[in-house]
Amino acid sequence: MSIRNKNIGKSNESSLHRTLKFHYAGPCGKTEVDTGEYLADVVRKDGEYVEIQTGSFAPLKKKVKEFASNGRVRIVHPVAVTKKIETYDSDGSFLYSRKSPLKGSLWNIFEALLHAPQLPLIRGVAVEVVLADITEKRVRDGKGARRRKGVSIKDRELSLWHESVLLEKPSDYLRFVPFKKNEEFTVSELAQREEIDKQTAGKALYVLTKMKIVKKTGKKGSAWLYTRKK
Q1: What is the pLDDT of residue 206?
Q2: Which has the closest alpha carbon to 99: 18, 159, 164, 141?
Q3: How far is CA 194 from the centre of its chain?
Q4: How many Å separate Cα 147 from the centre of its chain?
Q5: Contact, 90 vs 139, CB < 8 A?
Q6: N- to C-terminal Cα distance for the chain?
Q7: Strand-pair category, 39-43 with 73-89
Q8: CA-wise closest residue to 175 among 125, 118, 106, 223
Q9: Can you give the pTM of this predicted structure?
């Protein structure tokens, strides 16, 4: 594997990623460990591999599978329960701050799993969701996305740790299916029961279907019906 693949993401490491990396390494673990084919974010004292992934899990498919062939793997995914946005001028002068109207929850894990829904099925792979308040630092440098009017995201910092939730085995995902076995339900009914939006409920059921936690049983009008498989 090329050196280029080993260095993916290192030069743009955020404060959030770095904070979590050293937290999970602890005093005896190692960070940025060269395994030969990939760099592991962390290898803990007990030999567990830890990957800090702030976005989609899709880029981890091959890496996690390789690590899992050698030992246990924990994918740590931070979710912003609340996000504060600080904006600076191009010279570094502070301009203003505001709170994002978007609020994250444990359900955000399905956005990350959307293009890698079978990662949690690999033997020895666990997912840990860190629910935290996050500060995002932006700079008016004219180089950012058009939707942000050229404002660039320069860093993300962990402001407050609320809790972490460990999903260690596939059956742990049953917590996202608040229905009895053989009880049929739709995307809308899941959204209503859990007080989440339909888009999030739809992503969750797509992932849970791929994980064989739920299955489609038919239709009610134009809506798919689902039931738990366990």
Answers
A1: 98
A2: 159
A3: 20
A4: 23
A5: yes
A6: 40
A7: unpaired
A8: 106
A9: 0.91
Find tokens 């981890």 and name the residue.
60
Give pLDDT tens digits for 124-154. Answer: 999 999 999 999 999 988 776 777 777 889 9
CATH number assigned to the domain with residue range 175-230, chosen from the 4 options 1.10.1200.10, 1.10.10.10, 3.40.50.2300, 1.50.10.10: 1.10.10.10
- The string of DSSP letters for 13-61 reads --HHHHHHHHHHHTTT-EEEEE-SSSEEEEE-TTS-EEEE-SS-SGGGH
Whole-angstrom Cα distance, residue 116 to residue 57?
6
Give start-end residues of each CATH 1.10.10.10 domain in the chain. Answer: 175-230
DSSP letter string over 98-137?
EE-S----GGGHHHHHTT-TTGGGSTTEEEEEEEEEEEEE
Which amino acid is located at 62 in the chain?
A: K
How distant, in Å, are the alpha carbons of 16, 18, 19, 94, 172 from that of 24? 12, 10, 9, 32, 22
